[in-house]
Amino acid sequence: MGKDDVKLLSMWASPFCMRVKVALAEKDIPYEEILETDLMNDKSDLLVKSNPVHKQVPVLLHDGKPVAESTNIITYLDEAWPAKPLLPDCAYEKSRARFWADYIDRKVYPAGRAIWSSKEQDEVEAAKSNFLEIMMYLDGTLGDKDYFNGDTFGFVDILLIGLTSWFPAYEKYGDFKLEDHYPKLAAWITRSWARETVSESLTNPEKITNFVSMMRKMYGLE
Amino acid sequence: MGKDDVKLLSMWASPFCMRVKVALAEKDIPYEEILETDLMNDKSDLLVKSNPVHKQVPVLLHDGKPVAESTNIITYLDEAWPAKPLLPDCAYEKSRARFWADYIDRKVYPAGRAIWSSKEQDEVEAAKSNFLEIMMYLDGTLGDKDYFNGDTFGFVDILLIGLTSWFPAYEKYGDFKLEDHYPKLAAWITRSWARETVSESLTNPEKITNFVSMMRKMYGLE
Predict the structure, then answer these.
(1) Boundaries of each GST C-terminal domain copy (chains A, B) (predicted)?
(2) Are A137 and B53 within 8 A, CB to CB?
(3) CB-based burial of residue A141 (10 Å sphere; 0-12 exposed, 13-18 middle, 19+ buried)?
(4) Is residue A49 part of a domain?
């Protein structure tokens, strides 16, 4: 393993970078994190060269070869480092995991963003309802299991937990508590954050909430 | 192979269903197509039961077990029927294929829809520019190769070709010809349509253009 040269182009507040860091930690892959300092005004040449289409973090560099897009990176990690698999073994269970991965990728972050970036109260309420409806489906598929795929923390858990540093900001600006609506899902967050691979990879939610507050001021929302 | 019971819940105009049909044909998997007749007003009970989250076609039923979302279905087909692989063998090339799959999935269909569903001329022009910019990246990654992964028609080809029945409608309402901008990409479309697995799976573009015209009338656009 020591022979692999692994670098992660990252940004401290990006939930998509955080999930890749959790995956790297779960798979015990040593890596160097290279932080972008100003994505808005001054993207690094390395980032633009490594991800010329989207010019976004995260990008994984494996022996210099770039892999972009967080879910794609995590799938790649699972294929290139087969030990400690994140995806289930059987094709059907894999398809279930990918279905929920896609659901999370398309829905959770934009729905959360709509909560804190809305101006009018009715827009905030609509955004909150939408976010909670998305959570309802995730709570439903989690059910009484410890983790999304059963007993072990895996692919879907990583994709969702990476986004949860932002949840307290959604709760603050939407004026709700996830645990009042979905106690099982809230318990899953607590259970997952108790893992070192998670708590050491994710940015402190308080820091994210301050960051969101700063952006709201910038957008003239507070 | 004959032992597998494979059904596809489908709709004749859906480009996402068409791509799954191409994949089934490429992999020589016999299946029964079950057509939805009125997705707008009367979804079948089987569809709602099989895909309760999105309630959308396509859904594959393999021995009764549902797999939803076209890209997920095609990945599943490639894993459950390993003969005639669609995805490249090596992890890095797989990650490249998934990167472009994701790009196509997120961008092409909504960009095309914006062309024919826009009312004002400046909106149509903006939608056309956006569509052509997306095509520029796809043309760039295709380059001088016959197919996206090189010599053989595979995963990325299937995902994109499935959407091309709609392209003549985009060209008509956007008043452009793809081949004037990207002759290599246009040649790839012609080359791919020459395959029986494609031409027998995709709906005739003329039928799609008539369908689009009908929707435009319904939306008060013509």
Answers:
(1) 90-211
(2) yes
(3) middle
(4) yes
